[in-house]
């Protein structure tokens, strides 16, 4: 019989030393408000672990917003994350709140962060440092209080060497 760990509406089941170690890491990381980066192949439960971190944290009653950086076309990812003001571009007929702002006081899970374009990595680094965002077409920064949990299947250290991922962002995450 495996150990069952209930996480919100989901359960993680396992009895190996490895899964018991994961349970311990989740409990420790959930108790802090630090950013977390999860590494693992597709289908290994990275989002389930991210949800466990959120649901066992002081932010559990606040939003959990998941964004797959590899599934959203690069040209749309910025407006999805940061939102935009009316008139920011052709077709922007109204102001749209981005996912980072929607997650205020909660958690943002950025899956496949290794696929994030370099220009957005710079903007994300600013969010981590300043705790504020700029909507596309906006003139005033918007304060956000968000915990970041990120995940990737890529070797980020190799991506840094290849110039595909910012080293300063990696160390912030």
TrEMBL record:
CDD domains for this protein: AAA
Listed PROSITE patterns: SIGMA54_INTERACT_1 (PS00675), SIGMA54_INTERACT_2 (PS00676), SIGMA54_INTERACT_4 (PS50045)
Gene3D superfamilies for the chain: P-loop containing nucleotide triphosphate hydrolases (3.40.50.300)
Sigma-54 factor interaction domain boundaries: 12-173
A GO biological-process term: regulation of DNA-templated transcription
UniProt entry tagged with the keyword Transferase: no
GO molecular function, one term: ATP binding
Keywords: ATP-binding, Nucleotide-binding
Descriptive protein name: Sigma-54 factor interaction domain-containing protein
Organism: marine metagenome
